[in-house]
Amino acid sequence: MTRLDSNKEQGPISSTPVSSEATILNAVPIRHYGRWIATIFLLLVAMVMVKSLITNPRFRWGIVGDYITSEPILDGLRLTLILTVVAQLIGILIGIILAIMRLSSNRVLARAAWIYIWFFRGTPLLVQLIFWYNISALYPEIAIGIPFGPTFWQGNANDLITPFAVAILGLALNEGATPFAVAILGLALNEGAYMAEIVRGGIVGIDQGQSESAKALGMTHMQTLRRIILPQAVKVIIPPTGNQTILMLKTTSLVSVLALADLLYTAQTIYARTFETMPLLTVVSLWYLGITSVLTFGQFFLERHFTEGKQDRITFTQRITGRVSMSKSGSELGQAERAKHND
Amino acid sequence: MIEPALRVEAVRKSYGHVEVLKGIDMQVKPGEVACLVGPSGSGKSTFLRCINHLEKINSGRLYVHGELVGYQEKKGRLYELSDREVCRKRAEIGMVFQSFNLFQHMSVLENIIEAPMKVLKTSKEEAVIYARELLELVGLSGREESYPKQLSGGQQQRVAITRALAMRPKLMLFDEPTSALDPELVGEVLAAMQDLANSGMTMIVVTHEMGFARKVADSVTFMDAGLIVESGPPDQVLDNPQNERTQSFFSKVL
Fold it and tell me: How far apart are alpha carbons B241 and B248 in whole angstroms?
């Protein structure tokens, strides 16, 4: 607010030619006592925290150091990363398909997508995971065929899910494929519901004229979507998708209920034996923080890649400090004001 | 008798309960330039969008080069054409919009070669050669790599015309092509359109540029409230309108 006001005040002055001497004012700047107090307070808090991190022996940094690159923890980390990447990728794919269905002029398709999103957003992921894990209690046998018609394949529900998992990765995991498949299935199906809304928002945001002119040129519905709409929607879709991926990284820790040895579950099994709870949770947190930082960095570069025009580009430090958006909007406001006064 | 480029018989169109077109009859001969004029909301743009099936008509018949638009007639019944077939027919009709609608994520050249490559399956080399030829005709050589945002409105509209021409259309539709332009940029777009008209292209132009209509059009059609009120050669309709509604409209705009 203050920025806006000061710009308005300056407008008429700067538009009339003034000698350079007159513009240099020897005014005393406003004293921000409140900010100073807050700064001193935060510095104190930070100092106390750092001191405790160093001097409190119960953090047992030695043990943290021992475990952070230990074999089981790294195996757990690997599984966490695989779950994150695979579930997120499938989730994005499901999201795109659902978004296109929701925007379809066919009401059945649109309504089906709506129900899917309603269901998966409306139930806790934890419940969904346990549900998929116990699906064989509901459907001990699964058959593939034409409904009310001939059957082509029939078998145990777990038999169906297992090859599904192997097919995705081609990996024979020690943990056994079924909990892994359940984890991927649960995480991806749930993620798809959230991604659908993000993708839909991106598509709806594109000017209608774009698809109209594509149609007028004779492009089919799918061509228009693939070549014209989606490439432009990506710019809008990327930032929230980055958030979703970071969220997914941490959500994968839920799979510990399936006794799947991800990062958290591995740590839990170790401290259940050794009672080194805090050091192991520290190890886990440090890894999650580290990966999140890498993802944040990657997200920044993806976003910058999709920003047109080099003059709008900012550096990573500018982004972290948030300084650039302030000064930029400030100068833009100033220009707009000046233009108005010149008129 | 030569088949007209456009033959329209008793076309009606409504949105819900609002009838926008109340029975339009019209013919445009090949090579003719027809200007559609009239107050806003008279249905001119809607009518134009019906010609390439961007809007579906509710009744009547609409033929482009003797072929029914959007439908097939078999034994007295109409069958809706598939997306693919509608697209194939649309490819023969170029359209230029008021707000240009260039693809924002593509360069000028990519904008122009996209449809020829994807719809007509032209090779990239061939599409690029033709695109450069057309760009030269509208005076935009050297702007191939620019993006729409970097061009003025007039330049964007000339690219849009080029993009439509790259499909080698038999008929061109213009929906108020100069209405979104700064006054000083209107001339360059009208000049490109006049060149096109002189080359023998069949054109249907919705416009408020009466000077253009007088100079270039073979016929001027005045529409009001979803009906064609008066139609004829430009000097007759513009200078000596017979209908009262036409007289009062032109007394205000001319």
Answer: 9
Q: Are B33 and B215 in contact (CB under 8 A)?
A: no
* A262 phi/psi in degrees, rounded to 5: -85, -170
Q: Are the C-beta atoms of residues B192 and B138 closer than 8 Å to each other?
A: yes
pLDDT of B174-231, one tens digit each? Answer: 999 999 999 899 999 999 999 999 999 999 999 999 999 999 999 999 999 999 999 9
Q: Is B91 on the interface with A (CB under 8 A)?
A: yes
Q: How far apart are CA B241 and CA B217, in angstroms?
A: 16
In percent, the amount of chain A with pLDDT more than 90 equals 54
Which residues, 6 or more positions from B126, have their beta carbon under 8 angstroms from its beta carbon? B116
Instruction: Return the structure tokens found at A236.
Output: 């809008």
Note the pLDDT tens digit of each residue in A187-212: 999 999 999 999 999 999 999 999 99
| Chain B residues 98-117 with a CB less than 8 Å from chain A | 99, 101-105, 114-115
Question: Measured between CA atoms, how close is A229 to chain B, in angstroms?
Answer: 9
- Report yes or no: A209 at the B interface, CB cutoff 8 Å: yes
CB contact (8 A) between residue B114 and residue A227: yes
Model's pTM, two decimal places?
Answer: 0.75
Of B94, B101, B163, nearest to A209 by CB-CB distance is B101
ipTM metric = 0.91
Alpha carbon of B165: minimum distance to chain A alpha carbons (Å): 10
Q: Do A215 and B54 lie within an 8 Å CB cutoff?
A: yes
DSSP code string of B192-248: HHHHHHHTT-EEEEE-S-HHHHHHH-SEEEEEETTEEEEEE-HIIIIIS--SHHHHH
Q: Quick one: angle between helices B108-118 and B153-165, nearest 10?
A: 20
